Amino acid sequence: MKGKHLVYLILLILAADQALKFYIKLNYYAGEEHVIIADWFRLHFVENEGMAWGWKFGGDTGKIILTLFRLVAVIWGSFLLRDFVQKKYHKGFLICAALIYAGALGNLIDSLFYGIIFEQSNPLSQNIARFFPPGGGYASLLHGKVVDMLYFPIITHAHFPSWVPFWGGDEFEFFRPVFNLADASISTGVIVLLLFQNKLMARPEEKRVHTIETKTEVNDQNQIS
């Protein structure tokens, strides 16, 4: 698989991810929710300061560490992905690697720049954030929040069986996390790699050197070079 094809795939995912995030930021206030299909597919605008799927990591200092880690990971991943292409890894493996890379880059853009270019949206005032507000953004470089919006509450108002330890009888919802296209891209790449790792993660075969044997007798008059 050629490297330019992976670049096209990464740019496509990145464009879709950022376009949806911009749409949400410029049209929804924080906490706003709309049903898209039936009751199980909704757009629900939330922002998180941490990792994928809304997980958090160590407050303000943790936010900086996480953003820098993402930056280093994306830079390192760029060289790693090029190396995979040059060594002609399995096409499926390259696609999964590109999905993970694109997702990481998409969330990195949020963390790096969204605090600078967007106004804060407050769920109490229900204001919609402006792009490049006159008074500046809601945070400095490295402190941007990741925009999430995809919400699939397929099962709601259900309860754990009484025999389940700790949660017996408690209400639960499936699927609770709110995520974005970048998260979905990362998760898809990782899950496919785990399911088909024996096939996709096999090292490319080295070129075999074939030798030709000959029964011709070598002497002073007949030499083989």
Notes on the protein architecture:
The protein has five helices and six strands. With 225 residues, it is an alpha+beta fold. It has a domain at 3-29 and 47-149 and 180-200. Strand 1 and strand 2 form a beta hairpin. Helix 1 runs parallel beside helix 3 (91-117) and helix 2 packs antiparallel against helix 3 (91-117). The radius of gyration is 25 Å and the shape is globular. The two termini are 38 Å apart. The model is unreliable at 206-211 (pLDDT under 50).
Secondary structure layout:
Layout: H1 3-27, E1 33-37, E2 41-48, H2 59-86, H3 91-117, E3 146-151, E4 155-159, E5 171-174, E6 178-179, H4 181-195, H5 197-200
Antiparallel strand pairs: 1-2, 2-3, 3-6, 4-5
Helix pairs in contact: 1-3, 2-3, 3-4
Helix content: 40-55%
Query: Widest sheet: strand order?
Result: 1-2-3-6
Number of strands: 6
Largest sheet: 4 strands, antiparallel
Measured on Cα atoms, how large is the radius of gyration? Answer: 25 Å
Give the overall form: globular
What is the arithmetic mean of pLDDT? 86
Low-confidence residue ranges: 206-211
Strand content: 5-15%
Number of helices: 5
Distance between the termini: 38 Å
What order do the helices and strands follow? HEEHHEEEEHH
SS content category: alpha+beta
Descriptive keywords:
alpha+beta, single chain, 5 helices, 225 residues
Provide a short characterization of the protein structure.
By secondary structure, the protein is α+β, with helices and mostly antiparallel strands. The protein has helices at residues 3-27, 59-86, 91-117, 181-195, 197-200, and strands at 33-37, 41-48, 146-151, 155-159, 171-174, 178-179.
